[in-house]
Amino acid sequence: MMTHHDPPLTRLPMEVLDEIVSYLSVEYFVSLRLTCKTVERALFRQFSRRFFETRQCLFPNKYNLQTLLDISTHPALSEALQHVIIATDRSIFSNTGGIEHITHLPKSFPWWISRHLKHLKPSGDFGDGFGAAGEDRPLLSEIFSNLPNLKTIQLRDFKGPSDTTRVRVPDFPELSWPASEAYARDEFNDHMFAVVLASLADANARPEHLGVIFSGFTFCLRNLAFYIPSQLEPSIGAAVFGLKHLDLSLNLDSEDHPANNALFVQRFLVMTPNLVYLRLRFPHLQSIFHTHHLLAWLGRHAQSHLHEQPVQGRVQWMTQRVGLTPSLNEPDPVGLPHLQQLVLENFIGIPETMMNLVTKFGPSLRTLKLDNTAYLVDLHNKFEHRVNIWTPLLKHIAEQCDLREWSIGCPRISLPHERRVISTYTIDLLAGGSGVVSYKGDDAKAMLKATADDISFSWVYSITAARNGGA
């Protein structure tokens, strides 16, 4: 019980005290907590929110996971923890055996280390993702089950003294090279994503935000990362059903160009019908093949059927050449009736795909962003025709959507080369002297219409070779 000797600070209502300390810097906040035990106890809730609402841990790292487990078992701190960031630790080599899966080494790699590589192998059994041996899944499951207010799970590159976009050998810290040069495939992040999904299902967790943010095409999730065994579909489906915010970094590259290179991604999106925000990040300067099957499927209405009669003539030839043959091997499209924000990073596609997307999501869509670069591939015209296919698309977007914010990063037109199969013409957009056009405000719709009339192209092309062919 407080006495008349208690200082005024200790007699303040909790709400007033919380409001005061919310303006303090970390230094002053910590100093205030050291005033006395009464103040320290009064500020504990604010302390928990400020320092434990968001926590980051490295994966795989048993010490980091153990620390996160300790926080999750604390009666007060577990209530405060809402956002968990799991960062990749790409120090994955140890002196424990042979290595066969490195396809080639950088030219700058020291010749004298080649003998040592025969005694290296990845540390940790990554296995098949869901069935991988190790303690990561049960530990994460226990952590997630201990967090009643868990809202966000984010997977990303670790940014620290040792950038994890590089491969390092722990016993030889002077040896380091870009992982994208050393691997044809990178299964590490695929495994991590699979383990996180399974752990959320085991814990009966219901997060609202799921983000996968990786740099470089080598580290983005592949289609196979979204494969979910049938026995786990009900539990994982329940875990992601309530997602409101989804951010994915995807690399849908495929050497054999299957009929549908995004089948498992599509099946995963079917499990997330309540999304309000969707961001899809694609690798820079990939071909239209890498994005088409996913985006074309996303833009179709539920129970819609593909055209049975293919297009004819030059368009048919172009469509087949760049890998856009319709696929019958796909699930029924997801509806996403609540989608308000759609962000496509490094978008490349035909105008019909984008028109279908905005027609489908137009009633609810308030933000549309085509970040970094945006390519429209023209299959109908030749370069000498100089047809501006962006203007009608932007007008269509303005008519279909009641936007409050929009942006188009470095808009371009790409035309498949007539003779050089793996090349495309690229024409840059000129809009007010800038390669980026954007706007935010109540009159965003009117500004988009005005921009559609103002844009012009240089029609000075560059020939770009696309990965694995295509446009």
Automatic annotation (TrEMBL):
Q: Where is the F-box domain?
A: 6-55
Source organism of the structure: Coniochaeta ligniaria NRRL 30616
Fetch the Pfam families from UniProt.
F-box
Which SUPFAM superfamilies did the record assign?
F-box domain, RNI-like
**Name the UniProt record assigns to this protein:** F-box domain-containing protein
